[in-house]
Design goal:
single chain, 345 residues, alpha/beta, Four Helix Bundle (Hemerythrin (Met), subunit A), Rossmann fold, 2 domains, 3-stranded antiparallel sheet, NagB/RpiA_transferase-like
Length: 345
């Protein structure tokens, strides 16, 4: 089953509304850049590569909206739009990467008319989306070389087709192993508080008939201790040049247990997720989200009124806890800084 998380057609951006899964499959239609900004902030679309592509298409929609302005006014408006979309969510570097690519298109074509710039932006948005799927499939092939013929795999959050334009990063590796005929079994953490593992990862695995079980986050350490996990594979939202990796909250906790029991943990992420401007994970801005994600489930309060909440969306796994990073350029192993910098664009 091919899952297309987003598609640009008829001058609109169509997104799978991931807030509604798995109970209903609905499409969220973006007609303006403000729609895209909302969709990213409210997690209609989520996952670093998907956010990057969506942000790029948000720039396209902004250009469509203002392409009849005089060039000076158009360029000023586009600068505003770039800034708005660049700050939709602070941690996923793919968003900034996608916006930067669109900014480069504008900067490199200022001699053209607004309508011509709009067409150039649309071409670049389509290119980003097409590249993402190709990159994920290549990454999956590299990652498959790390998976034994028979393996039980633990994953956290959702790094599947729904987190990308298609195919997925961590789940792309799992897909590639499954499609190659390997005997694999997947444990998917539910991933509190947004439950991406329960709602999204398990939905993808069931749709593709990949053998799996959904588990509470608190079960993972017991499975690792009892020797029931062969390896862990997760995605990433931002990777520092020393290999420190920001991913969904709870990843660091898994890495600590995995290291204690000598279980390999692999990060699957495109080169665009590496932030070559930061040296360590200490420089990564961690998004904090609304209290209600913790105090409520499906709109119903489960915690007492007045309780205070700390709800970071991500944590940083230090490079010493990571076995390898799977990218479309190959598998990066320690020493991470030396080997990551070799891939700098």
């Amino acid at each position: 089953m091919e899952i297309k998380t987003l598609e640009f057609k008829d001058e609109k951006l169509y997104l799978i509304d991931q807030r509604k899964l798995p109970n209903s499959f609905e499409t969220f239609v973006c007609e303006t850049y403000k729609d895209v900004d909302f969709a990213i902030k409210d997690m209609v679309v989520r996952g670093a590569p998907a956010i990057g592509a969506s942000g790029a298409y948000g720039v396209v929609l902004g250009a469509k909206e203002y392409k009849d302005l005089e060039k000076k006014d158009f360029l000023e408006k586009m600068e505003e739009i770039l800034e708005v979309l660049n700050s939709s969510r602070p941690t996923a570097v793919n968003l900034m990467w996608g916006i930067k690519r669109m900014r480069n298109v504008i900067e490199g074509n200022k001699e053209l008319s607004p309508k011509e710039i709009y067409e150039k932006l649309k071409e670049e948005g389509n290119k980003i989306a097409k590249e993402d799927v190709e990159i994920n499939k290549t990454m999956g092939e590299y990652g498959n070389t790390l998976i034994p013929e028979k393996a039980t795999i633990l994953t956290h959050c959702n790094a599947g087709a729904l987190a990308t334009v298609g195919y997925g990063t961590a789940l792309g590796v799992i897909r590639s192993a499954f499609y190659s005929g390997k005997d694999i079994f997947v444990y998917a953490d539910e991933t509190r508080p947004r439950l991406q593992g329960a709602k999204l990862t398990s939905w993808e695995l069931v749709k593709e008939e990949i053998p799996c079980k959904l588990i509470p986050d608190s079960v993972a350490a017991t499975l690792i201790r009892d020797g029931k996990i062969d390896l862990i594979v997760v995605g990433a939202d931002r990777i520092a040049t020393n290999g420190d990796t920001a991913n969904k909250i709870g990843t660091f906790m898994l890495s600590v247990v995995a290291k204690a029991y000598n279980i390999p943990i692999y990060i699957a992420a495109p080169i665009s997720t590496i932030d070559f401007d930061i040296e360590t994970g200490e420089e990564i801005v961690i998004e904090e989200r609304d209290d209600e994600e913790v105090t409520h489930i499906q709109g119903k309060r489960i915690a007492p009124e007045g309780v205070k909440v700390y709800n970071p969306a991500f944590d940083v796994t230090p490079n010493e806890n990571i076995t390898a990073i799977i990218t479309e350029k190959g598998i990066i192993k320690p020493p991470f800084k030396e080997n990551i910098l070799k891939l700098r664009p």
